[in-house]
Amino acid sequence: MTTPSLDDPTTDPMQVARAAAEALAAATGVEQHDVALVLGSGWGGAADLLGETVAEVASTDLPGFTAPAVVGHVGTLRSVRITTDAGTKHALVLGSRTHLYEGRGVRAVVHGVRTAAAAGCSTVVLTNGCGGLDPSWGPGTPVLISDHINLTAASPLEGATFVDLTDLYSSRLRAVAREVDPALPEGVYVQFRGPHYETPAEVRMAGILGGHLVGMSTTLDAIAARHAGMEVLGISLVTNLAAGVGSEPLSHEEVLEAGRAAGPRISALLADVVRRL
């Protein structure tokens, strides 16, 4: 039986997500996952610290997924068994995400989150690498996302689908993260469409609107997760000062280098937080 394509406007994207979740269960032998992690730039090492990897599946082996298009992302989904005093749970780690600027459409962008929900996840942790507007947040600073501003002019919701986004980035989960590191700052994440970096004027605009972080991902995933009934925790890694805030020119290599330098510390932080969830 052929799985309907996300590119077909007559297809229900939830049907494709359910098909991917069924294929995931068959490939991993794990009937249900509990928490999902979407690992952005710099966050990849967290998967190794969570627990025992039960199975690893190439994203291209699952319906609706494609190979990652961005350097620094890993094209696999990993099932990890987490054992704590409270019992055993399974985490689904998505090593890559589809970005809106890739031109594959919003459905493809949020397919991973929808698949996680279909696989049973009630919680999702969304991470990213981003530019910071606060000069005191140097490269390598993890920041909890308290809210977002979506400047992509897009939404993953189709038709008359009205979803409340109040407390989208769960205050309860942010409190759990602060149990691990009470010093974690928080801020508002502003998503631009990309793939070009923001201009200094656009960064100033983001600050006037109330933003503290700028990037090219996360907000659409968060909206889709709320629609699917998941609780959302967002954590950004400041990989560089945003345009006009710092004096250095921006580059993707700078983002990757900041992620490599901060990797061990932020991976341990994320693993500790997820175990508490």
UniProtKB/TrEMBL annotation:
This is Purine nucleoside phosphorylase. The keyword Transferase applies. Its EC number is 2.4.2.1. It catalyses: a purine 2'-deoxy-D-ribonucleoside + phosphate = a purine nucleobase + 2-deoxy-alpha-D-ribose 1-phosphate. Homotrimer. Pfam families: PNP_UDP_1 (PF01048). PANTHER family: METHYLTHIOADENOSINE/PURINE NUCLEOSIDE PHOSPHORYLASE, PURINE NUCLEOSIDE PHOSPHORYLASE-RELATED. It comes from Cellulomonas marina.
